[in-house]
Amino acid sequence: MSNSFDQIISRKNTQSIRWDKYPADVIPLWVADMDFICPQFILDGLQKRLQHGILGYTYASETFKQKIVDYIDRQYGCLIEKEWITFLPSVVSGLHLAAQHLLGSSDHALVPSPAYHHFYDSVNQAGKQFSEFHMTLKDGRWVFSIDELEALVKPNTRLLMLCNPHNPGGTVFRKEELIELSDFCLKHQIILCTDEIHADLILDEGLRHTPLVGLNHLITENSFSLMSLNKVFNFPGIGLAWMVTKNVEIRRKMTAQIHASVPEPNLFAYLATELAMTPDSPSSDWYKELIIYLRHNRDLVEERIKTIPQLSMAHLESTYLAWIDASQLQLTDPQEYFLKAGVALSPGTQFRAPQFLRLNFGVPKTILSQALDRIEKACQLI
Questions:
Q1: Which domains does the chain have, with CATH numbers?
Q2: Which residues contact 53 (CB under 8 A, 6 or more apart)?
Q3: pLDDT tens, 342-360?
Q4: Residue 88 is inside which H or E element, if any?
Q5: How many helices, marked H, and strands, marked E, lie in the chain?
Q6: pLDDT tens digits, one per residue of 127-175
Q7: Minimal CA–CA distance to 29: which of 21, 41, 39, 40?
Q8: Residue 313: which residues within 8 A CB-CB, separation 6 or more?
Q9: Which is deepest, 22, 35, 125, 319, by most CB within 10 Å?
């Protein structure tokens, strides 16, 4: 590889959420950012902009919007229009805006479980009612059940949230599964929201992300996708997201608090994202090598977990986040146990699954191997 993802760069004392929380002897594999340098092409572009010396207010140009349109077509074979795009500082802010402004005071939402904790936080903090629909293992994939959704839906259900690809399970939902879900939402007049931040982190060859807005014209009018390149090009610290929806009223409600309580993305976020999606740029080579490296790390994690009798995990189709079942250990707090063994993992309680753990393998292979050694040794002591 021309880009060395094996390079170890210390992130201690850099105000890294992941690396500065625990003592130096703990390997932190929790918060979902990677330990790889951004593509040099992006860093050079940011440096050039910084050297200009004036860091004033900025905006998203029509050229940039067109690049997003072209990127979505190129990556997913999905045609959208520039007018459907609305910019946000992050996907998380999009989830919170949806709960606050698309749900009335007495409305109800459907939220996946397990899922990234901001799904629950968004509806909880907005003071809205919600029910959890469960991801269950079927043929080695974490999937939802339309039958369960039919049992949970209420007359006042107005919003359904989904993470595709799924965090933490790694499922890449197939087009037919999304069509079935969209039909359910249309039937019950429910707005469908998808967090698609991991769309470009598909590890299984032959799989392709299906954006919600590309399914059919009916669901395009009744849904929105939240997208970002923050994860895949590893610049969440200056991140930017965008919402895609044809529905004018959804766009109006979702942008009502821009400036008032939600900031616009900063100028570096616009620039980094635009550079990342430029076709035939050096970042394209970096991206291809990243996916290969993450695939090898994924395979390593799956192979090692298989050798530990007390742990298990389903095959991970996407993301760099392994979802590990530690229930056979019969521990009250699995996260705390492995933390004492020198590995910090995301606790399953954060995802409504207390006997599970999430492991971030977006790190150099030597660090990952050391962490897996510690995990295996800790299991042998029980």
A1: 17-39+282-380 (3.90.1150.10), 55-276 (3.40.640.10)
A2: none
A3: 999 999 999 999 999 999 9
A4: strand 85-88
A5: 13, 13
A6: 999 999 999 999 999 999 999 999 999 999 999 999 999 999 999 999 9
A7: 21
A8: 301, 302, 305, 322, 323, 324, 325
A9: 319
